[in-house]
Design brief:
This protein is an alpha/beta fold. It is built from 13 helices and 11 strands. Bound molecules: NADP nicotinamide-adenine-dinucleotide phosphate.
């Protein structure tokens, strides 16, 4: 497969960068979106966020529906109600919002791409690794077969299906799906909620601690999305290319917990039993923390993507600034 570095005209080549590629990013105001926007704008490209709120550098989902997609080279969807929203109980209304916030926005953007007189060259959906069944032994690459087995895997199935473009549009617009694990960064996501208890010396393993903990540094995730945004060199493949958005290191929750404690020099002696996590978060959501999948970024690496933070030590040190 061609890579970011080996394309005749790579996405970031001076020649193309001079032309300033424009990108429309649904949910670009969030944790991952802010990092992606920083990366793209640092390279001289332009980002318009698609948001529920109007504002400078933004268009709203309503405007997208009524006026269509402003011409662009790349489109991404990152929008979705936060799965770990600490202010929401795990109930039917929350579950409904998790689905509709992802599926409706993805459908709206896919429809706008299909209806555009000049569709973008690349379209990237960011979904998740919840499609892979938690296991202590199985390893999953982008080519692993999977069928939905619980609520979150059903969500991924419907979410990814809603991103599919009609055949004629897919001949010119490259479709990609990036499936991130737990995204680590100082500016949001899981670390924002975990750091305080760890600083206070109250951090500990979750459940047995043996469960795999697929993770990625937010800066690498932004890099993989940018990688997937590269315009196609030839006719794109008719179905989406999947990239597992995880670091190549396969760590357990125990290893993550101990390494975070070591990096911030705090004890991690208070394990949190699985039933406590499940009671606090709801079992369907708690399993994201108490169970996990060994996810291998095979295609991501084969396609030439270079990680800045391939191991926990480098990622955690960057995040806590030590
Ligand atoms: N962070 C992780 O660890 C992680 C792991 C795996 C997968 N993912 C997926 O990656 C994507 C980006 O993650 P993130 O952490 O950047 O997300 P985030 O910051 O929680 O949210 C991204 C954006 O989604 C929009 N949004 C929030 N609630 C919404 C709702 N009810 N309806 C429509 N839009 C809504 C918001 O944009 P506006 O307020 O501007 O509308 C928000 O800025 C998400 O789809 C997430 O499921 C994240």
């Amino acid at each position: 497969m061609t890579s970011l570095l080996s394309y005749g005209k790579p996405y970031w080549s001076k020649e193309i960068a001079a032309n300033k590629l424009t990108n429309r990013v649904g949910g670009g105001s969030g944790f991952v979106g802010r990092e992606l926007t920083r990366l793209l704008t640092n390279k001289g490209h332009e980002v318009t966020v698609i948001s529920r709120q109007p504002g400078p550098g933004k268009i709203t989902w309503g405007e997208l529906e009524s006026s269509g997609l402003p011409a662009c080279e790349g489109a991404v969807n990152l929008a979705g109600e936060n799965l770990m929203n600490p202010f929401r109980w795990w109930n039917e209304s929350y579950k409904k919002d998790l689905f509709s916030s992802r599926i409706d926005t993805t459908k709206t953007l896919a429809r706008a791409i299909a209806a555009s007189p000049s569709p973008p060259r690349s379209w990237v959906l960011v979904s998740g690794v919840a499609c892979y069944k938690p296991s202590l032994t199985a390893q999953y690459t982008e080519d692993s077969e999977w069928t939905p087995f619980d609520l979150l895997s059903k969500l991924v199935k419907e979410w990814e299906a809603s991103a599919l473009l009609p055949e004629d549009v897919a001949k010119t617009t490259k479709q990609s799906v990036v499936r991130p694990g737990v995204v680590l960064g100082c500016d949001g996501g899981a670390m924002k909620q975990m750091l305080l208890p760890f600083w206070l010396g109250l951090g500990g393993t979750l459940g047995s601690g043996n469960q795999p903990f697929p993770w990625i540094h937010v800066s690498d995730l932004a890099g993989i999305i940018a990688h997937a945004l590269e315009p196609p060199a030839d006719t794109p493949s008719p179905s989406p290319q999947v990239f597992n958005g995880v670091a190549p290191a396969l760590n357990t929750n125990y290893e993550f917990t101990k390494e975070l404690g070591r990096v911030i020099r705090r004890p991690t002696i208070f394990p949190v039993p699985g039933f406590v996590v499940n009671t606090l978060l709801g079992a369907e959501r708690g399993m994201v923390l108490t169970q996990g999948q060994k996810v291998v970024p095979e295609r991501t690496q084969e396609s030439g993507f270079q990680y800045k933070y391939p191991d926990l030590t480098s990622a955690l040190k960057e995040i806590v600034g030590s």
